[in-house]
Amino acid sequence: MAEATQTQSEQSGDMEALYQARLSRYVTAMRNEKPDQIPIRPFVAEFVAKYCGFTAQEVAHDFDKAFVAARRCAADFDWDAVVGNMVYVWTGLTKAISLKYYAVPGIEIPPDTGFQYIEPPEDNAHMQPDEYDQLIEDPTGFLYNVWLPRVADDVSPMGQPTSMRNNLSFVKGGMAMMNYFQGFGTQAALLRGDSGTVSAISGILKGPFDIIADKLRGYKGLCMDMYRQPEKVLAACQAMAPHLLHVALSGADPDKNVPIGLWMHRGCVPFLSPAQFEKFYWPTLREVIEELWARGHQTLFYAEGEWNPNLKYIAELPDRSIIYHVDRGDIFEVHEAVGHKFCISGGIPNDLLAFGTPEEVRQCCKKVIDGVAGNGGYIMDASAIMQDDTRAENLKAMTDFTREYGVY
Amino acid sequence: MAEQEQSKRAPGVCIPWEEKLKELPPIKGDSELVKRVWEDVDGLGYVYIWHCLVSF
Lengths: 408, 56
What we know:
Chain A has helices at about 1-30, 45-50, 55-60, 65-75, 90-95, 130-135, 140-150, 165-195, 210-215, 220-230, 230-250, 275-295, 310-315, 330-340, 350-355, 360-370, 390-405; strands spanning about 80, 100-105, 115, 200, 205, 260-265, 300-305, 320-325, 345, 380. Chain A is an alpha/beta fold. In chain A, the strands form three sheets. A six-stranded parallel sheet of chain A has the order 5-6-7-8-9-10, with helices on both faces. In chain A, helix 1 crosses helix 8 and helix 11 (about 230-250) runs parallel beside helix 12. The radius of gyration of chain A is 22 Å and the shape is globular. The model of chain A has no long low-confidence stretch (mean pLDDT about 95). Chain B is mostly helical. Chain B is about 50% helix and about 0% strand. Chain B has two helices and no strands. Chains A and B meet through helix 7, helix 8, helix 11 and helix 12 of A and helix 2 of B.
């Protein structure tokens, strides 16, 4: 028994040493410096389900299975950091509180299709065009009094009779949310202990413009508002910003090692022109990112889509305040424009990982590493979140090649 | 962020302590303790609605 305990202790020590080496590698790169080798931090979502034999329904609706699948992938692949659950929207909670803007795998859509967000109809948005003043005056009050009853079927509108289902929605929703978020803490400890893997991010940030587009006015409604009532849109972004900052800080890494994830949707071309980006999207988001950095937190700037036309604005951010994740933009152009200021991640096309060969993946990784990683400040990843079309052998090729070729 | 003061409810707050205090009888014990615990638990209500918006 004593011998077995000793062995376990030694294994635990080895795993902690591996964790510390990976954390150092990851953090060094994120500070735009040169680590011992290129860190690997893949954003693997429904990929983990397919790899482990689960359906998209299982990982979306049963977060324990999503956590298990993420840990199994972390143990099987030689990755430095992963997100504890990249299939982040737990649809068990969204159904428990009767949110109506998701199509859930196995319910509204087939069990092997990832969950989908449903844009509100243009004439029936979750916030009406004449409600900006209410939102601006009291964002939290607006969410409880107006928004939630509209998006959650069980929640009674203000002034209407209440119901058991209304009351249950808050009890179940609150307890379920706490249960889920606490699960991320346990997941981080298990990733660290089981495979020496770092939890890649902590906390969440959305841009004020994005959240108004996604959850309140809808993209089309907000586009009309930019022309019909631009001052209201700007004032709403300003009213939302301190709250989004607060939410981001509430989940941030207290040790200030890993960044806050910023998931951006509508600021890129062609959703907004660069002029609209400059006027509407950027001022308040920039302010939030700068405030986070002033408090010592980096932001993972997940530039989903094509953001290169906006690089001159993004370059205004303080050095090292963000990790710039490249999706559809030309990664070499990004490196030229902001590589001296920020760590860059991503750049391996998802269609290549889905439809290419391992050799083509290795060639692409070599090209990206040669082009942007020479002085450090680069993290290997696919361009976008990896869903179930990513082939395991291609992800293995990306991982193994980076380990072999990406040593400084 | 200067805009913070303009909002009716500050970030992290659903029912401000000052509003709740008016509903309570004169506090006979440690009022700071009552205030702190009120604000801590009230903050959970804030977390709930903002994460419904941002995370779900």
